[in-house]
Amino acid sequence: MEKWAVVVAIWTMCAMCAVLFIRGATRDATRSVRAARGNAHAGRARDGKYEAHDA
Q1: What pLDDT does 24 receive?
Q2: What is the pTM of this model?
Q3: Start-to-end CA span in the chain (Å)
Q4: Is the CB of residue 42 less than 8 Å from the CB of residue 52?
Q5: Block means of pLDDT (10 residues each) for the chain, length 55 residues?
Q6: 8 Å CB contact between 50 and 44
Q7: For residue 27, what are the CA distances in angstroms to 6, 20, 23, 37, 39?
Q8: Quick one: pLDDT at residue 35?
Q9: Domain ranges in the chain?
Q10: Cα gap 30→53, rounded to integer Å
Q11: C-alpha span between 13 and 46 (Å, rounded)
């Protein structure tokens, strides 16, 4: 029984590391996309061509 506990613990640790790695890797990509969108909206707002709409 303790062998199964060790196997489950190792698989759980691997799964958690994978999830944290993927979340960390996608955070920067999402942040840069949001920043690019924000800059585009700011540029249109300066030109007077952008109207904010509540979603």
Answers
A1: 85
A2: 0.48
A3: 53
A4: no
A5: 94 96 78 70 57 57
A6: yes
A7: 32, 11, 6, 15, 18
A8: 75
A9: 1-37
A10: 22
A11: 49
